[in-house]
Amino acid sequence: MDGQAYGRDGTKEKAWIEGEKRKDDDLGQKEMLRGHWGSKTEFILAVAGNVVGLGNVWRFPYLCYKNGGGAFLVPYLVFVVTCGVPLFLLETAMGQYTQEGGITCWKRLCPLAEGIGYAGQLILLYSCMCYIIILAWALFYLLFSFSAQLPWASCTNYWNTDDCVDFSSQNRTFNRTGQMNSTSAATEFWERRVLAISGGIEEVGSVRWEVLLCLIVMWVICYFCIWKGVKSTGKVVYFTATFPYAMLLVLLIRGLTLPGALQGVLFYLYPEPDRLSDPQVWMEAGSQIFFSYSVGVGSLTVLGSYNTYNNNCYKDCLWLCLLNSGTSVVAGFAVFSVLGFMAHEQGVPIEEVAESGPGLAFIAYPQAVAMMPLPQMWAACFFIMIILLGLDTQFVAMEVVMTSVSDLFPAVLRKTGRRELFLLFFCLTCFFFQLIMVTEGGMYVFQLFDYYACNGTCVLFLSVFESLAMGWIFGEADRMYGVIEDMTGMRPNPVFKLCWLYMTPLVAFICSLVEYQPLTFNRWYVYPGWVYVLGWLLNLEGQIGGLKDLKLFLERLSSGAEMEVLMTAAGESTDK
Fold first, then answer.
1. Is residue 505 part of a domain?
2. Binding site: which residues?
3. Residue list for the binding site for Na(+)
C-alpha cells in the first residue's frame, strides 16, 4: 500500500469524498425513501436504548466485584478509550455517510468486506430469537408481582420440594450444613415453576404455555413498536429509553437506604490493585466493552444511517459512550446495595448471594425484594425496568435487520404495505423457530444459542475484520477521517487512527482467543459433546462472512496488481 497516497494534507482523500458526493446527487431522494429521525433526540434515545441493556445491570456489576472492585475500572476505561469509543464512532459514521443498512453500506465503502455485513445480520437474527425469551420471563415475573404474596418468597406452593428453604429460615441461626443441601424458594420458583426445567437438553418436554403466552405478548409489542420504521421507533423510544432510568433511580435510592447496603457497595467497589497483574481481569474488561457497546454487528451503522448527512455524530458518540459506561457503574450501586441487604438479613457473606446474568434477575434480586416492606411494589419496579431495558434492545435489533434487508431489496420492500407484511413474516418465523426455547428443556437450547451464536468469539472476530477493513483496506484510516470531518466539521483525535489500525483489532483478537470456556448450566450440568460441536458450528456460521472476506483480501493482496482496487469504495481506482 502506497504510504504517500493519503498524505497529511488530505488532498487525495478530499478529492475522493467530493467524487463520491457527485455520485450521490440523489442523496436527498434516498433520505425521503428511507426516512430519517424526526430529531436528534430520537437518534440519541434510540442508540441509548440499544446499547444500554440488560448487560449493564446484570453483567458489569458482577464483573467489577469479581475482578478487583474499583481496580477493574482501570482496564475497563483503557478499553473504553482504545476499543469501545473508536468502534462506536466508526460504525455510526459509516451509516451516516452512506445512508445505507448493515449490508449495503459495505458495498459502497469496501465491497471486499461485504460478508461482514451479512455475518452481522445473522448474529442479530439469532439475537432476536434469544433476547425476547428473557423479556417473556420478565413479564411472567411481573404478572406474579401483583400477587397477595410473592410466590418466590415461601415454600408452601405446589412446586416446592422438601429441600426448599424460605427467607424466614435463612437467618443467622440456620444450620449451615442443612443450608448447603437446600434450595431457596426463589430458585425453586425459577427452575420448577417458570422453566419446569428437564434433566438435560435431550429431554425437550412439553411447552410452557404460560411463558408462551408472555412471549406472544412481547412479539406483538415489538411488532407495533417498529412497524412504521423510524417514524414509530423514534416516538416509542421517548418512553422506553427514559423510563428505565426513572426505575433505576427509584431502586437505587431504595437500595441505599436498606441495612447492609454500605457493605454491599464497598464489596462492589473496594479496590484490589494487585488484581491488575492478572491477564484475565484485562481480558474480561475488554470483552465487556465489545458486548456492551453493541459493536461488530451493524446496529450502530443502521441507526446512524437515519441521521442527516451533517449531523455531528462525533460529539453524539462521545456522549453516548459516557452514558453507557456511566449507567453500568450506577447500576452496580443499585444491585449491590440490595445484595448487601440480603446478605445482612441472612447473615451470610455477600459472595454467597452475588450472581450475574439470569441468576441475578430471576433469583437473587427477587429474593432480596421479597425481604423488603411492600415487596410487590419493588418487584414490579424491578421487572418493569428489566422489560423496558430489554425491549429497546430487542426492537432496535429487529429494526436493524429490517432496514438491512429493505436496503438490499428496495424495489420490493419499500412499496406501500410491503414493510408491514415482511415484518410480520419476520416475527412469525422467529417465533416458530424459538418455540423449542419455551419447552421444559428450552433453557438448555437458549443457553446454547445465546453463548455460541449471539455473543463470544463471533462478535469479537467480526470486530477484528471490521477494524481491518476500514482501517487498512478503505485507506489507512485517513479516508474515514476525511469522511467524519466532511460530515461534522470536526477532525477526530489522532488516537482514533491508532486504534482503528492497531489497538482495536489486536485487543478483539486476543480477547477472542481467551474468552471461551465450556458451556455449563448452573455450574453442574455439563452438555454432551455433540452440543459443543453444534455450538461451534453456530459460532463459525456468524464468522464465515468475515473469514471469506479475509480469504479474498489475501488472495488479491498476493497478486499485487489489484491493490488499488482494494482501496476503492466501489471497486474503481482511486484516481478516477
1. yes
2. 49, 52, 56, 292, 324, 389, 392
3. 49, 52, 56, 292, 324, 389, 392
Query: What does DSSP assign to residue 576?
Result: -
pLDDT reading at 435 higher than 60: yes
Task: Give how many domains the chain has, as a whole number.
Answer: 1
Of 299, 521, 545, 539, nearest in space to 403 by CA = 299
- pLDDT tens by residue, 469-496: 888 877 667 788 888 999 998 888 888 9
CA 33/CA 101 separation, integer angstroms: 13
The domain of 123 spans 11-566
Query: Is residue 332 a contact partner of residue 268, using CB atoms and an 8 Å limit?
Result: yes
By the 8 A CB rule, do 483 and 92 touch? no
Residue, of 230 and 14, whose pLDDT is higher: 230
pTM: 0.89
Instruction: Flag whether 138 is in a domain.
Output: yes
CATH number for the domain spanning 113: value is 1.10.4160
**Do the Cβ atoms of 255 and 261 come closer than 8 Å?**
yes
Q: Computed from CA positions of residues 109, 112, 118, 119, in that sequence, does the dihedral angle turn out positive or negative?
A: negative
Which residues are CB-neighbours of 278 under 8 A, at least 6 positions away? Answer: 67, 68
Q: List the one residue out of 340, 195, 332, 324 whose CA is nearest residue 260.
A: 340
Q: What is the DSSP letter of 298?
A: S
Q: Residue 238: which pLDDT band, with cuts at 50, 70 and 90?
A: very high
Residue 3 lies in a domain: no
| Residue 16 belongs to a domain | yes
List all residues 6 or more positions away from 556 whose beta carbon is below 8 Å from its beta carbon. Answer: 112, 562, 563, 565, 566
Residues written for the chain: 576
Query: Whole-angstrom Cα distance, residue 533 to residue 448?
Result: 11
Res. 563 pLDDT band, cuts 50 70 90: very low
